Amino acid sequence: MNAAPSGQGATTVVEPGGPGSTQPILAVHGLTKSYEGQRALDGMDFEVRAGEIHALLGENGAGKSTLIKAVSGAIPFDAGRILLDGREVRPSDPADARRLGIAVVHQHGNLVPALTVAENILLGERLPRRVGVLTDRRRMRRVVRDVLEQVQLDVGPDTPVSALKPHQAGMVQVAKALHTKARLIILDEPTTAFTPAEVDVLFERLRSLARQGTGFVYVSHRLAEVLDIADRMTVMREGRLVGTWRRHELDHDGLVAQLVGDEELAHRHSEDRQAREVARGEPILTIRGLRGPGVDGVDLTVHHREVLGLASLPGNGAEDIVRLLFGLAEREAGELELDGRRIAPGDPGAAKAAGFALIPKDRHAQAVLPGRSVRDNATIASTRRYRSDRVVRLMRRRTERQDTRRLIDDLSIKTRGPEQDIATLSGGNQQKVVLGRWLLRDSRVFLFDDPCAGVDIQSKSEIYRIISGLAEQGAGVIVTSTELEELVRACHRVVVLFEGRIAGELVGDQITEQSILRLAFGPSEKGEEQAHGGRS
Amino acid sequence: MAAAAEPAAIDRRRIDPAQFAARWGTIASLILLIVVFSALKPDTFATSGNFIDIVNQVAILGVIALGLTAPLVMNQFDLSITGVATLAGYVSTRMLAEGNGGLIPVLLGTLALAALIGVANGYIVGYLGISAFIATLAVGQILNGVVLGYSKSETVMLGIPDSFLALGQDKVGPIPVPVIIFAVVALVLWTFLERTEYGRHMYAIGSNSEAARLSGINVRRYALIALSISAVAAAIGGMVVAANLGVGRPQGVGETYLLDGFTAVFVGAATLRPGVFHILGTVVGVLLIGVISNGLSILGVATFWQLIIKGTLLIAAIFLASLANRTAR
Questions:
Q1: What is the spatial distance between Cα A310 and Cα A498, in angstroms, rounded to a whole number?
Q2: How far apart are CA A287 and CA A297, in angstroms?
Q3: Selected residue with higher pLDDT from A173 and B105
Q4: How much is the average pLDDT of B319-326?
Q5: In chain B, is it the N or the C terminus that has fewer CB atoms within a 10 Å radius of its CB?
Q6: A371-386 pLDDT per residue, tens
């Protein structure tokens, strides 16, 4: 392995002998795209041939979605070339890309649920007419039946899309793409909501469509599926190509090794890392047999003075545990014990009363109260502490203002004062106010759901400092993050989940991005026992 | 939209003309109108008696508009106030006329009935998840129907005690009772919304309902509270109308105030705190409507002009408020 972090990517491009391979449908050369100085794509190379199913893999932030967006015209790119059938193209928007023959099938679908299958497939084009104004429904149905036959989907053209199962809706999207004469269809995590049987059906149809010459790009985190369906696999890391392999050239472990990269990277962030060795205190939160949406039997203990990380690929359980703890999803089974007391938080109010604090992922949608003052934002979760009595409930604003000032000093929040509108603060300072909201009450367990999303670097390290400070003062701290680097920096212990169960636990120096990812991608068939060992 | 928040962090103390117009535009036009009308009709318009009259003329509208402000803080419309106001005026006069209770029990009973209707509204909105606009429209229709049926379309004319009529016709010193009621309702609601935990939670819900929920606030329950407030205010308004006219009409009472009420509240949301519904703003909006109606009638301008001017005013005010939000965020 020679994928040095600064290198050009250890390109092990294998000359493929894919079915009927002559010229690639899609060829991407040196594609580069930066967001605010951060390179999301850094000279990416990629090609897809006619008739192949080509898997595109990489951890979060590796650049997959940026690549897809650039190819499908959703975003402009900075440098590089995109060749379609050997001709250079630069799709200006998604509609332009569709005209060129590139279609994207998104995980959440771009169908209109209220319209029928036929209307969705024909959406955006001129419908067949009668007498100039009336739509010719008979001709519409005939056209659509042909396409549906092509994807072997057994639903009527007049079925409303809202009545379809997820895999049928997925196939309708594929049918729509075929109807617009797409040569290249990009499937972005298409199987997220599928059952295994539905996945099989989808794969069978994709194979038969590929045999007829359509090229597919298949983006997924599910390695087992990828190893099943893909003719070739391309792995990306940090916006670059790591390599492209034919299916049988890599097994599960080999693929994971390519995905997680070099062990050298492991200590890249060691200097920012918090002290690893903590004298772990008494248990503060004990979770037994937790079960609910996305969580399938989890036992977990959070101790005083430790920062516990929860890691998983999207939809594999880390965020779902947080949702269950804060009463945002319905607990199906399991016991929770906080400070030795049994608790059953059924809604956020009850979770708050039990001692939980949630710093949600999406600051704008879930945390900030725009148009309200810093003071209002800071005290909103603890208004009970500031009210005069239980009946009239006048707010003691002087006390509020004093406490907010103290918070502003303690967290070095940059604001003109407690009365400034929070919307005028920078993202990092807004996040500190949101955090402060829970410091003003005696929260026992802090749940940080991706606490540093969209936060500037300086605020980031300040937020880490606050997190470790909270743990030192005896609170329980749980952190989830889509950026594994954050977990490596912030956590004393990381529990990794796969398909809603604990896949393994890492402590101290074992915590690296690689070790987390290795567990998060799930056990390979032969590693099954090892995974079960890690669960005990 | 993380990026959008950053540039706004730059200094806001520099006076931005759009911001300034949005904050002070309605108050400036209120003062300007008073000055203009005073200059044109110094003997009739600019007298202390006429100023009291102006407030008296809009006092009922004011009470109803103040009530509407509470659900609007949470971005919820209450259209059932038409039915509630009519119901309250009719039921209270009929009870009193038929001798089914003294003044105080009837007043309190009517207010309790209104609160109950508000709770029903709130249950439909908060717990059944139907949009407030539609739910309260429907409840308003139902109430109008109930009153018509109950009254057999007959107006209560005789037997209404003077103690009740005093609510709409008497004066305390030089100040008419409706004006006092308006002032008290304004003060109570201002305190409630600006100074209590309830108000704080309602503004939080209006600002970002999901964030409020994740802060542990029981968002649904506040729909009950907000819609009860608007219903009680509408009932007070309806009873003062009945007292003022000396009759309990079974139809058409609330409708008069619906459009002007919303105009006043929205003009208020374009005052001082652009884009935010608040009591002080509503008071300014109500007074603006009063001054326009009164001034134009004294000038002898036809009524239809008043409607045209009020409509134009509303659009101008909303436009100014939106201007401020465009520059502030």
A1: 11
A2: 10
A3: B105
A4: 72
A5: N
A6: 999 999 999 999 999 9
